[in-house]
Fold this protein.
Amino acid sequence: MALIEITKLTKTYRLGSLVTPVLEEVGFRIEEGEFCSIVGPSGSGKTTLLNLLGGLDREYEGSLQIAGQEMRGLSDRQISLLRSRTIGFIFQSFHLLEHLTCQENVMLPFFFAGKPTEEARRRAATLLERVGVGEKRGVRPTYISGGQKQRVAIARALILSPKLLLCDEPTGNLDRETGAQIVALFRELNRDLGVTVLVVTHDERMSRVAPRVLRLWDRKVEDTRTDPSRVVDDLARASSVPPAAGAGGAA
Ligand SMILES: Nc1ncnc2c1ncn2[C@@H]1O[C@H](COP(=O)(O)OP(=O)(O)O)[C@@H](O)[C@H]1O
Ligand SMILES: [Mg+2]
């Protein structure tokens, strides 16, 4: 069973008389453990697609199944269970709570899921170590850098061991070098934890790092796989390798 299975997915926003078609009979499937980037011009529907995949928006036509469940048919309770257990979100603007410490931020999903605090505390500390900011656990996010904030947000997204990480322009507020480090971290987490990662990005270099790229364009999704011999681990190297014919290039 595919982790994500989309068939003839159509999404149209309707605001009064304003009708905005965004996706039109789009189809693709993503298996557990994949690492994909989603690219496309501003306004092409990247965030819309991610919101649908994450169950934040359940108004669509066609079929959208996550872990075998059709999103449209789920009750609010079922959707919040699926969201807390299966899906982790990462945003451009981190969405950390400034009045909590980094460790408390990472523990938040545990509180909502009603799990014991001691386990949450231990696991948060371990994850903060894993993403490279262990020493910041008692500090509030105000006092750490953008790259460190994104690492904390990644730890928070991972705390309930999701199968799927949905990342909406996670490097959009970071400089190139810091962004490259965050992408390298996603790649490592994908390999080491087996978590499926979908990264929406403007960074054209991502088409060299992700083995698979979904390009949003003209309400369609073009599904391209990068020649395995040309997939590189980090964005810094990605920019120095010439693009493969038809599989890299302009994003
Ligand atoms: N909640 C909404 N209501 C109406 N239109 C929307 C809404 N969200 C996005 N749109 C429109 O849908 C299109 C795709 O937007 P979006 O998914 O945010 O694109 P991207 O993330 O690729 O920049 C744009 O034309 C945008 O104006
Ligand atoms: Mg967007």
